[in-house]
Give the backbone structure.
Amino acid sequence: MTGPYLGLVCRHWIGAEHRHCRATEGVRPFLVGPCCPLHTPAALAGKDEAPATSSLPATALPASPLSDSRVADARAISSGKRRSSPTAYRAAQAAVHKTT
């Protein structure tokens, strides 16, 4: 057995032979369970496997919405709609209601 998923065994049921596949080479985890290359969902559907890596460069991916959620949280805390400690409330009010 080689690869990052040591110890996985294909659990695809071969109905004509009344047994599980039990292959150990190239087995990867899927939602339906561990599958060998012959029994992946794409292989069973007669389609090609998806590429192992993303076809987009990392710079083409969208920015994380984390910064947007922080602004929304600060607004909710400063308006009193979201409960927080008095310190967080004052800090959120200062961040949202900046004076120029």
The radius of gyration is 25 Å. Residues 1-48 form one domain.
